[in-house]
Request: fold
Amino acid sequence: MKNKIQKITTNLWFDSQAEEAAKFYTSIFENSKIGRITSYGNEGNQIHGKTMGSVMTVEFELEGQKFVALNGGPQFKFTEAISFIIHCEDQKELDYYWGKLSEGGDEKAQVCGWLKDQFGVSWQIIPESLTEMVNDSNPEKSERMMKALLQMKKIDIKTLEQAIKDKFQ
Reply:
């Protein structure tokens, strides 16, 4: 039986760091792996300008989600318009992903649980409970939580929970 292809696969365009990025990401996520690596041939060299035999694409998987990293050149850069959300069960897990993904990244891009990693890819490292807190049936609680959230770089779950409980923050 033929392997079923994932219907939607995220393609990440790098200048020349596709393999380095795939290795970095797969070192962070427990359930991950690097798959097929393709190389540039001589065909199209006048367009892509890449050296024959250099890495063109790296297929990799993080937590069951398939990605392709492409060494496409410097024409395109990542922006915050697209980000990957990591839902964390607790502060320990949140701290782990924040620590690993923020290492070498842009500290100025860290706000409200968002960060940019060393490759310029944006991530949101958030607690699973954040959606519940934002949508609390009591709008005053939700507003207090948002006020606290907007003052954070890395999210502190206890501070958010306290903001919901504390009427005099």
In short: The mean pLDDT is 93. Strands lie at 10-14, 32-39, 55-62, 65-71, 83-88, 106-111, 114-116, 122-127. The longest strand covers residues 32-39. The helical segments are 18-28, 45-48, 91-102, 130-134, 139-149, 157-165.
